[in-house]
Design brief:
Number of domains: 3
Strand content: 25-35%
Bound molecules: zinc ion
Helix content: 10-25%
CATH topology of the largest domain: TIM Barrel
Number of helices: 9
């Protein structure tokens, strides 16, 4: 997508500026001392000349270093709309996030960027409900309807259109996204690309690891060609029990994955046969940072929201998981740079006011809520850990691979602290240390039973062992 695909929303067109009297047919600027009368044509020429001198840098290109202080920005990088299997319009979804404390959102529809000409039929109750809310919120001048063979249809606004309508510089950012939806045999392999420029097709491969790698490589190739920072992340490894810890550990290059996904079918916690995503994180980190020398694996929390009209434990609703990224600027390049530096955390409810990651120390401060008690566990694996493992018992008739069973030396709780501040000093023996904060506060609209709010920092590695 290029800048010139961005068009002016209808309510901001020149015609309307003129007819609303904002330009006027004849504008007297004599009071400024020029003593001349300018026609509308002159004004239009001046405005066009002004526009031609505006900077033409790509919308999400890197900016020069900022003097603004760094701060936390809240965002969700996994969201679905009517452009794939979500049940609402992009503007309505973005409006929810914008009015619920988020600063950035990527709409990541399956195998599509929202840049095509597309009409959808108002063919069921959910769509009727979505349309009613859409018209009430954005007005009939914005909503485009037509009737084809007695069927009412609505045009889906494109990424440039809804971005222009919803973005608010310095307060709310819309980042281009796509969920590249691939598979290996029956296993779903889904990879999100955040801030991509052109739609990407799912890649095939000869194994689970190969499918992941082919798709990551295709995203990185677009980044290399365009120079635009693009962040890939591996989605919901336990959805369809698709990806094991051993597979996650083999992926080449700095890797991001979802340690928490708000969709009710993704098995964040694993089950009696399958490892939880946190267990897989530790297994993968331990080997990536020692024998495999493959660099960091960073964890995100996301919504993977599809259903926006009814809150229910069994629905994939918005607001369950997000990332907090520390950056001076709210633009895609700055946010991605901060995430690549590990300067972000994942949350399903706990808010951290500070996270310090120095070569010697991992510490954090919790924005404590009244009535909430907090436990911070510093989880890590030491150098020279026991790498032995054995296969676990298989569920009956399962065709899928299982994460193997490892010793407790992987992902050991190295320290625990209670209260709003927690600090871990590196001894020098750690391959990595990460922090998990658990609140006693029950998570609102959780899909898990007895789920309380949590946050996860990124692993801190000793200097030299950082991301490759
Ligand atoms: Zn998915
Ligand atoms: Zn998804």
């Amino acid at each position: 997508m290029t800048n010139d695909q961005f068009s002016m929303p209808k309510e901001c067109s020149m015609n309307q500026l003129s007819s609303s009297g904002m330009l006027g047919d004849r504008t007297n600027v004599g009071h400024l001392g020029f003593g001349i009368h300018w026609s509308l044509r002159h004004w239009v020429l001046v405005i066009l000349l002004f526009i031609s001198f505006l900077p033409t840098a790509p919308l999400h290109a890197a900016q020069p270093p900022s003097r603004d202080p760094v701060r936390w920005w809240k965002g969700n990088l996994h969201t679905h709309s009517f452009w794939s299997d979500g049940d609402d319009f992009p503007e309505s979804i973005l409006d929810w996030y914008k009015t619920n404390g988020y600063h950035f959102v990527a709409l990541s529809d399956h195998n599509v960027m929202q840049v095509h000409q597309r009409w959808i039929a108002v063919s069921n109750g959910t769509r009727k409900q979505a349309l009613e809310k859409y018209r009430a919120r954005f007005g009939d001048a914005w909503v485009e309807l037509r009737t084809v063979t007695n069927q009412l249809q609505v045009r889906l606004k494109t990424l440039p259109e809804f971005t222009r309508l919803m973005e608010h510089r310095g307060r709310f950012l819309v980042i281009p996204g796509e969920e590249i939806t691939a598979s290996y045999k029956l296993q779903p392999i889904h990879i999100n690309a955040t801030n991509l420029r052109e739609e990407l097709k799912p890649q095939k491969g000869t194994s689970v690891v190969d499918v992941i790698q082919q798709n990551l490589d295709s995203i990185r190739e677009q980044r290399r060609i365009t120079g635009q920072p693009i962040l890939p992340h591996i989605n919901h490894p336990n959805f369809g029990w698709a990806i094991t810890g051993e597979e996650l550990m083999q992926v080449r290059g700095q890797t991001f994955f979802e340690v928490y996904n708000g969709h009710p079918s993704v098995h964040n916690e694993g089950d009696e046969h399958h490892a939880s995503l946190e267990r897989m994180w530790d297994v993968a980190l331990a080997f990536r940072l020692s024998q495999l020398n493959l660099g960091a694996l960073y964890g995100l929390a996301v919504d993977d929201s599809h259903q926006y009209h009814h809150l229910a434990r069994t629905n994939s609703n918005a607001g369950r998981g997000w990332v907090m990224v520390r950056s001076a600027r709210l633009d895609a390049a700055s946010l991605i740079a901060a995430m690549e530096a590990g300067d972000f955390y994942a949350s399903s409810g706990v808010v951290l006011s500070d996270v310090k990651r120095t070569p010697r120390e991992l510490s954090l401060e919790i924005q404590a809520e009244p009535g909430g008690r907090y436990k911070t566990e510093f989880i890590g694996t030491l150098k020279g850990f026991d790498p032995t493992s054995r296969p676990g018992p298989r569920p009956t008739n399962s065709i899928y691979a299982l994460t193997r069973l490892y010793t407790e030396e992987i992902g050991t709780v190295l320290a625990v602290s209670e209260g709003a501040k927690a600090r871990y000093q590196m001894s020098g023996d750690e391959l990595y240390v990460r922090a998990r904060v658990t609140s006693t506060k029950p998570k609102p609209n959780a899909f898990g039973t007895n789920e309380t709010e949590r946050a996860w920092t990124q692993p801190l590695m000793p200097a030299g062992a950082a991301a490759r």
